[in-house]
Amino acid sequence: MAVIALVTALVGTTSVTATITNYMIMVVSVMALAIFSGNSGILSFGHVAFMALGAQISSTLTLAPMQKAMLMPALPAWIAQAQFGFSAALAITIAVVMLVATPTGMVIRKLAAPVVPIATLGLLIIVNSLIIGSDGVTRGSQAMYGVPNDVGLWVATSAAAIATFIASLYRESAAGLSLRASREDEAAASAVGVNVPAQRMIGWIWSGAVAAAAGALLAHYLTVFSPKDFFFDLTFATIVMLIVGGMGSVTGALVGTSLVTVLIEILRRLENGFSIGPIDFPQIFGFTQIGLCVLILAILYRRPGGLLGFVEIGRFLVRPRREASTSSTPPAEGAAEDTLEISRVRKQFGGLTAVDDVTLSLRRGEILGLIGPNGSGKSTLLGCIAGNIAADHGSIRISGREMCGQPAFVIARGGVARNFQSIRLFANLTPLENVKAAALQKHRGMSLVQADAAALKLLAELRIEALADRRSGDLAYGQQRRVEIARALALDPNFLLLDEPAAGMNEAETDELLSILEWLTQRRRLGLLIVDHDMSLIMRLCHRIAVLNKGQLIALGSPSEIRASAQVREAYLGRRHSQILEAAIVPLKQTGRA
Amino acid sequence: MKTMRILLLSGLGCLLCGLAAAHAEDTLKVGFVGGQTGYMAQCDQPSLKGMELAVDEINKAGGIDNKVKLELIARDSRSEVAPSAVMARELLDQGVTVMISPCDVDHSIAVAGVTAPAKVPAISSCASTPSLAKIGGDYMFVNCTPDNLQGAVLGKYAAEQGYKTALILVSKDTPYTYQLPIYFSQAFEKHGGKLIGTVEYKLGQQDFAAEVTKIAQMSPAADVIMTSAYEPDFPTFLKQLRSAGVNTPVLGSDGLDSPTIWSLGSVSEGVVFTNAGFPVPGSRLAAFGDEYKAHYGEETQTVFNATGYDLIKIIAAAVKASGGKTDGQSIRDALDNLENVEIATGTITYKGMNRVPIRSVALNKIADGKKTYVDTVVPAPQDVPPAQ
Fold first, then answer.
1. Domains of chain A by range and CATH?
2. Whose CA, among A288, A542, B121, B224, lies 20 to 30 Å from A252?
3. Record: contact A288-B79, CB cut-off 8 A
4. DSSP of B263-286, one letter per residue?
């Protein structure tokens, strides 16, 4: 960036300097958007509202009192009489906009991801209307002019560099990583302890701060602006730049902004007419817009994730030296009373009682199987324990603490990890980042280097450390299962809930899984709750088995007891069939495989 | 990557050939930075067509005073502020000594910020906010019928019709929809009328029931309602007003100069509005219409064709008055002293007006679904409310 600025300063004409300055300010505004939308995966139409406020507030602060009296006669005296330099005004503006971003962020955090873009659009319209409606304190719909020209090439370039740095720093931070995890899979992120609403809000406020700076810069570069300059056109321009470059990375944001700027500059020169050999092309207005749209469509057709997608250039240039932590932290030696106690848990969906007063307990080091016919309420019970589904009543005590009704991320941090029926990794993150994201939730305040080391150690324990920097979505099925288990272990859980861990695995993979699970219970003394349809797996693995039917716990006991239970057979097969099969099962019992 | 490089090179090549274009002593380079795409295109595109016609005519006739030929260089601002300033700089680099700036106020101010230090005058293609000249400084000129001029003409006309009280419908969303009615009320009160109510609306509002109820319940009712609302707000408002049984006369401004307004049927019957000129048979504007059709093969659709055409004629008049000088300072000074210049839309005077012209304003009345001629007025300077 400095190079571009230097070359411009040395050889650029005034119009080229103006273009580059404008480009640098666009970099700042696209970075603002990248901080929120890039990491959360949620498009925001509202960031230009923060830019509008940034422009409005900063110029109100830097304008001379005499001008203010003329332009905005209704300003309170203490503002009308004050005049600040650009740096002080910028700092105040950012602080004020962060204050505005906080309550709006509280609304954003309440909303489900798909409706957030609509809400941000609302914010844009509200802020625009407020600025227009506050004629006297603002300029209403009229142009604000005479703003001091405090921003030139160098200020804009420095700002662009700082904004890019902040965006990169945030992306790699614990908060940024957590937000990216929620972008990949919100439920899985909650399951590893990410407080998704809170992370969205943090991203929102920081990106609001950067957007405010972009607005202030633009105002003090143009020296004249009106509310309509901070509305849909600018919103779409910044979104296009971000999407073309690739929403998933800071480099993408930078590349998108640069590419769109360069394309506009080339196209608008061609627009004025040119000749190729003997053929003269006339001046055609609109060529820039049309050409730009066609090129953007072409880029997105070829690369739907934007030019760079999730690739971060910096990652190839500087690869940090890492090593797994050698200090082996032995799994916390839990007290014997470390139990997961489920008592009279009930969940109704309309008239259907999915889980009906179930009482169960699980000790550390124990493997409890949860079986039952389809629709018997196994997954619902698992969801109630993990906090994904709110139980209607009952009690769930983890190591003595009542957790019923807590959100998933609290339960995850409280020592209960889970996996999902189908693998739900953060596909665009590396295995290392997957595990790190979880580790950072459990150990608040852990440094990124420590988290790296801890994550690497877990990957090593699961013998997949060589894959640490690959894209998780590209790994083989068995490898993905291992990453998922490593991620769950990063929470240092006492209990692990496994929903059909062997589904879709071949025999060799199942055997490997079994050895991992054995290792988990014996070496790390985890209590496992396993839901699976694979009877032989359950019978081989579990110390005790609980059987659900129509939401009710109908049997609980050792594998042999369960196998012998007529009630269980009835539930699975119906009374008549169970009697017919009785004869076939008896010999199996005698082989003593249990 | 390779195609990219070729594109880049050819882009640079074009830039260079543009820069290399030689200055000719007897050529005046007129720059036009306008919104050829984006929201301003509806005004700046037709303006450009008018300008091109005027340049063509003058050059075919041997140039201004048979000496100075014109070269019009147009650039698209994409209806954005930052590119407006960039384009203005590029045109200055190409040797432009008089600039026509975009239709909107802040875009024009951005252009003036570039041209004024170079002592090059800028004239907005169609911004009608009179304060633009003050904000833009000594090198910034307004061209299109200023809001306060229309307000002055409408206010005086209302008083002459014997209306005693008036109500204005305003929207704070743009200076045009907000301040023009205020200029009207100032002029109306100066001529003995009284403003008894102000009703607000939002631009693009779908339903005017609340506003219409407010107006219908006013007691005593106003003699006349004035607004500078335009499509789609004006038709919606007017239909609801008339169907509520309010038959108070309605006055409007040049935003109503559109066939969709005239053809609203009985509801728009009798609406009086101002615009830049009316093509009375035998008038200069009617002649312009014929020339336009001969040149482009189509009827002129909007008054911006004529105002664009007039802009070039005004610049030509300034060059002529300066004795053929083509430098920015001479043109600025000559523009500032123009008096009663005959143009297609009537006459225009800058002398003594601080770069906000006095020009003739036509009053039109909608009758039988057509725009009919009422009068052409050149307001006296003392009757024009000061710019806000």
1. 2-230 (no CATH), 232-274+282-312 (no CATH), 339-559 (3.40.50.300)
2. A288
3. no
4. TTGGGGTT-EEEES----TTSHHH
Q: Where are the beta strands (DSSP E) in A419-573?
A: 495-499, 527-531, 544-549, 552-557
The answer to whether the Cβ–Cβ distance between A18 and B89 falls below 8 Å is yes
State the Cα–Cα distance between residues A470 and A53, nearest whole angstrom: 41
- Would the pLDDT of B16 be above 50? no
The interface pTM score, or ipTM, of the predicted complex is 0.76
Task: Enter the pTM of the model.
Answer: 0.83
> Token match 């009608």: residue?
B128
pLDDT above 90 as % of chain A: 51
- pLDDT of B64 > 90? The answer is yes
Can you read off the two tokens belonging to residue A21?
């300055």
B247, two tokens: 């038959």
- Judge whether A286 is closer than 8 Å to chain B, CB to CB: yes
Using one digit for the tens of pLDDT, what is the confidence trace for A68-97?
A: 888 898 999 999 999 999 999 999 999 999
Q: What's the pLDDT band for A576 if we cut at 50, 70, 90?
A: low
Best B45, B73, B76, B111 residue to mutate vs chain A (most A CBs within 10 Å): B76
Going from the C-alpha of B261 to that of each of B40, B147, B230, the distances in angstroms are 21, 20, 9
Please name which of A113, A117, A97 lies closest in space to residue A197, comparing C-alpha atoms.
A113
Q: How many inter-chain contacts (A to B, CB under 8 Å) are there?
A: 96
Spatial distance between the Cα atoms of B364 and B374, rounded to a whole number of angstroms: 5
CB contact under 8 A, A15 and B37: no
As a whole number of angstroms, the distance between CA A372 and CA A60 comes to 68
A288/B129 Cβ within 8 A: no
C-beta atoms surrounding B354 within 10 Å: 15
Test A222 with B81 for CB contact under 8 angstroms.
yes
Strand ranges (E), A465-505: 495-499
One-letter amino acid for residue A90 of the chain: L
H or E element that contains B351: none
Measure the CA–CA gap between A158 and A155, rounded to whole angstroms. 5
Q: Going by C-beta distance under 8 Å and a sequence separation of 6 or more, which residues neighbour residue A391? A: A345, A346, A347, A355, A384, A404, A405
